[in-house]
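Known limitations

Files may contain more than one protein. Parsers should not assume a single record per file. Below, a two-record file is shown to illustrate correct handling: read the sequence, read the C-alpha cell line, then continue until end of file.
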Amino acid sequence: MRVQKFGTFLSGMVMPNIAIFIAWGIITAFFIPTGWTPVAALGGSADGSVVGVVGPILTYLIPLAIAIQGGRMVYDIRGAVVGSIFAMGVILGSDTTMILGAMICGPLGAYIIKQVDRIWDGKIKPGFEMLVNNYAAGILGFGLFLVGFFWLSKLFTGIALALGSAVEFLIHHSLLPLASIFIEPAKVFFLNNAINHGVLDQLGAQQVKESGKSILFLLEANPGPGLGILLAFTFFGVGIARSTAPGAIIIQFFGGIHEIYFPYVLQKPVLFIAVILGGGTGVLTNVIFNSGLTAPASPGSILAVLFNTSRDSYLGVILSVVLSAAVTFAVASFFLLTSRKRDLANGGGDMTAAFDKMQANKGREANAATAGLFANNSPANEQESEAALGGVGAGTTTATATKVHNLVFACDAGMGSSAMGASVLRNKIKKAGIEGVTVTNKAIANLSGDEDLIITQEELTDRARQKNPNAQHVSVGNFMNAPQYDQVVEQLKNQ
C-alpha cells in the first residue's frame, strides 16, 4: 500500500500534464528533420544550426509544469511557486532533460516552504502578513535556486545519464524484454501509472529528443497482454469472468483502461506468467524492428498507440501488439483449460467467489457485501454494518447512521476506471429514479473526507479507508458489471 501511495504521488505530478507530452509528441512527429513534414523553425535543423521548439519544450516547459504540479500537491499555490523556482535552478544548471530533477525539487521545495511558514505561523503582526510571506518565499526560492543550479543539477544529471546508459545497455544487448518480469506484475498491483508516468515517460522523452522515438513508451502501455487475457477468458473462462470479458475487451483495447483486466489476473495468479511472457514478446518485437512512439500513449488504447507511433515504426508496433496478445492468449488459455473442470465444480472461476475466498483466507470481512447490510436501521443491523466496515466501531459517526448523498468512485489516478465505474453506477441510479445523490469519480489521494460512500477496487480499498475512515466502503472486483452496484442502488432506494 505504501508503494502504491508513493507511485500515485509520482504519477500525480505527470498525469495532469500528459496533454503537454502529447502536443510535444505531435510537434516532434511532424516537424523534426526525420518527421512527416520537416520544418526547421519548429523541429530544428539536422545540423543543429536551428534550435526549433522541440528541445525547449522538453527542456523547460515539461519539467517546469511537472514541478509546479508537484509543489501544488504538497502545499497548494505557495508550494508550486517555490517548487518551480527550485526546479528552475536544476533545469538551467543541467545540459540534459531534468524531468527527474523537477519531480524531486518541485515537491521538496514546497515541503521546505511549508515547514518555514510554520515557524512564524500566528506570530506575524497584522498588516505585515503579505510582506513576510512574499519575502520568505522569495528569499528561500533564491537559496534553493542556487543549490539546484550549482549542486543538485550535477547530481541529477549523473543519475539521468546512468539510467539512460542502463536502458541503452539493455536495448543493445536485447535484454529489455526482461523488464516485463517486473513491469507486468507491478501493473496488475495498480502501479501501472507510477511505472509509466513516474519513470518511463521521462526516459522516453529524452530518447525522443535524440532519435525521434522511444521504445520505452510501449513497455507498459502495450494493450496486447491485457487483450490476450480477456480473450482467453472469453473463450475458456467460467462464471462472471467469462460473461464480462467480451465487454471488457472493448474498454481495455479501445478505451485504454488497462485496470479492467487486473482482477482477471488476480483471480488466477498463475496468469502472471501469461502477461509476463506476452509483455516480453511485445518488447522483443519492438527491439527487433527498432520501433517506438513519439509520445506517451495515455490512456493505453490501441488508438493512442497508433496515433503516437513513429512514421517508420508501424509494422513493428502493430506486430508487437498482435504477438503479445497471441502469446498471452495461448499461455492463459492453457492454464484456464487445465483448471476448467475444477473451476466449474467449485465456482473458482467466479470472480466474486474468488474474492470471498481471498478475504476468508486473510481473515478479514468481505467488504464487497457491505452495501447490502443497510436495508433497515435496526440496532442489530447497524452493529453488523459497523463490524463489516472493518475498523469503524461504536461511538463513531459512520455512514451506517446517515443517508448517502455524496457517493464517490475512487481509483489510483481518478480518471480511467473510476470514471467508467461512476458512469455505470450513475446510469443505474438514474434508471431507478433516485434523486438527491451525486456520483463522482476521484483519485484516492484527493478524497476530502466528506464522502458518504466510497466504491473502490479490492486492492485499493485499504488506502481509501485511510483517507476517509468514516465513510461506508464497498469493494468491487469487476467494476464494469459488479453485483455490488445493484446492492448500492437497493440501499439508496431504502434510505
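...continuing to the second record:
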Amino acid sequence: MLYAVISEDVENSLEKRLSVRAEHIARLNALKDEGKLVLAGPHPAIDSDDPGTNGFTGSLIVAEFDSLELAQAWADADPYIGAGVYQKVTVKPFKKVLP
C-alpha cells in the first residue's frame, strides 16, 4: 500500500537540512531503487523552485510499504528527525487515483 509521509519543519531549518541532506537523499534513493518511491520533495517557504535562504517548511514523500507500522518506522528513522529539522511528521495511508 502507498503511504504519505507529511513533515513540517521547525523554523529556520535550512542549515539543519543541509547538514544531513546527503543521508536523507540516500534513503530516498534506496526506496527509488526498490521501485517503492512515488514522489518526494520539500515545500519551499516562498513561491519559488529555489527559495534560497528562505528555505523550506516541510516535505512530502509518497512511497509503498507493507504496512503503516513499517512506513512509520521508516519515517521515524529519517536523518532530518535526528538533526532537528522536523517538528512534526504524519504518516498515513494514501490512495493514488490520478494519473
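Parsers that stop after the first record will miss the second one. For reference, the second record is described as follows. The beta strands are 2-9, 37-44, 56-64, 86-94.
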